[in-house]
Amino acid sequence: KDLLESLPETDTHLSNLELERIVRTIYEPSPTRFRETEVEHFPFVHHSSAILEDVNELLWWNFSRNEPDHFFSRWYRTELEYLENLGIHLQSPEDKNRLLIWQRGLPVLRTQKRLLLVMPSMVNGSDVFPHALHDVLEATFENMEAITFDVDTEKGKAAIQKHFEIPDKIILEKRPFGYAQPFINIDRPNRLLPDYQNEESRNYETFSSLEDLFYYPYKWVFKHKIKLHKSSILSIVRDTTLMGNLSHRFFELLFKEDIQGWNKRKVNEWIDSKSNQLLTREGAVLLMYGREPERINFINKIKYAAWSLVSMIQKNAWTVEQTEMDLAGKFEAIPIRAKADLVLKRGDEKMVIDLKWRGAGWRKSSIKNEEDLQLVMYSKLLTDDQTWAHTAYFILESGKMIARNSLAINEVEAVAPDSDHIAVNQRIFEKMEKTFRWRLAQLQNGQIEVRTEHTKKDLEDRYGNDLLDLLEMKDGDAKFDDYRTLIDVIK
């Protein structure tokens, strides 16, 4: 409550970034937990240059390389000259390097009797290299191995035992994970079946949930039936995910405008006018120091992709019906909900476009192999008759459109230009229906298929030719699988 009240009164909505900051403030502890100073504690410092007086003994923890590889000026030459004229003299990269070299040797020079250097091979899960001073020590002293103790191999243990009491190493017994079994068998299978008539439970499906049921039923059970979910606490997403989210927002806002008479210059001006506000609210990491090249490159890609899509729409006489359009319908008498990125119309024809940041090769392969189930589902929900809306993927990073044929857009990369998209869509949809009924029958028998790289062969031997009329099953492990540890068994 206090955090929300501290926000400006003019702000009526929270951006994703602001919500992220609030959540982290509440749930994440401070990286360093300070405690009261204990009696007879060892004096310590966090920086090597903080040792101002001679010490008898020094333990240098994490004697690893954590210094910058190089220095570069944060100021332009004109700025430095302006400050110097005012009598303000800033440190140059050369000054900083000389200071670092001087600071680097202080701990060794200040130590009078005994110096212990602890050099881990990894810190925070990443490989590290010895401190730059280690090379100087090796060049200064002969036979460093005589005073080195390797904790892992225990080489040099005899020498160090003269001065310290070394604990014995105990080898812990490994308990490796086993392999998943082809099926999880349930004694009371009626509890597995979805109840679409119960208003208090999840009484609909989405394409994502259906895809889990088609290919990886155990994910559908864990996620949508048992409702095992990852923590809902927000986190800073990867750059690829961030670019995809931001590009979707740009296009969502762009196609709310009347773009019919727009030219390339108008599109670029609109993106420039929206970029600062949108990046501030939803992509602040791209505004950080040092990320200007990435930000400029991203905006240039958005401009290219935006004009590419706008020009395709204009040249082929399409108009925008809606962005982020909610779709609803029935699949095997089951309520289905979906959201289409972009829906176009041209007379009685309709077209649904799924925006993707990257992955052109994978999208082409899915269309070629008739595995573009999401587009087929969107087409069915949008038309709900035998006309079948046109479908396509638009790759934002490259500004290219990928479709089965070029009947809707002449400029697309047609994967199967001579194919009848209506017949193909109908064939895919029928396989989806048959696969759904097959999976429900398995659940009714208390069988939850666990498809992994290890179980694939057993499943193929069990099914034989029974899968010919169904969707082609996957060959490997599920991507982005949050439930892998639940299907593996400890030996």
Question: TL;DR of this structure?
Answer:
This protein is of the alpha/beta class and 491 residues long.
Please, could you describe this protein's structure?
It is a single chain. By secondary structure, the chain is α/β, with parallel strands linked by helices. Among the domains are: 48-140, no CATH class; 186-235 and 316-491, Lambda Exonuclease, Chain A (Alpha-Beta Complex), CATH 3.90.320. Helix content is 38%, strand content 14%. The protein has 16 helices and 13 strands. Strands 6, 7, 8, 9, 10, 11 and 12 form a seven-stranded mixed β-sheet that branches. A two-stranded parallel ribbon has the order 1-2.
Largest sheet descriptor: 7 strands, mixed
Proportion of beta-strand residues: 5-15%
Enumerate the spans where pLDDT stays under 50 for 5 or more consecutive residues.
none
Mean pLDDT: 87
Terminus-to-terminus distance: 49 Å
Q: Helix- and strand-based class?
A: alpha/beta
Shape: extended
Radius of gyration: 31 Å
The CATH topology of the domain at 186-235 and 316-491 is given as: Lambda Exonuclease, Chain A
Descriptive labels:
491 residues; alpha/beta; Lambda Exonuclease, Chain A; seven-stranded mixed sheet; 16 helices
Helix-strand layout with pairing:
Blueprint (H helix, E strand, L loop, with lengths): L1 H4 L10 H12 L27 E6 L16 H9 L7 H18 E7 L4 E2 L2 E2 L4 H9 L16 H4 L22 E3 L19 E2 H9 L1 H9 L13 H16 L9 H19 L9 H24 L3 E13 L2 E13 L2 E8 L3 H9 L4 H11 L6 E6 L4 E4 L9 E2 L6 H24 L2 E3 L6 H8 L20 H4 L4
Parallel strand pairs: 1-2, 6-8, 9-10, 11-12
Antiparallel strand pairs: 3-4, 5-13, 7-8, 8-9, 10-11
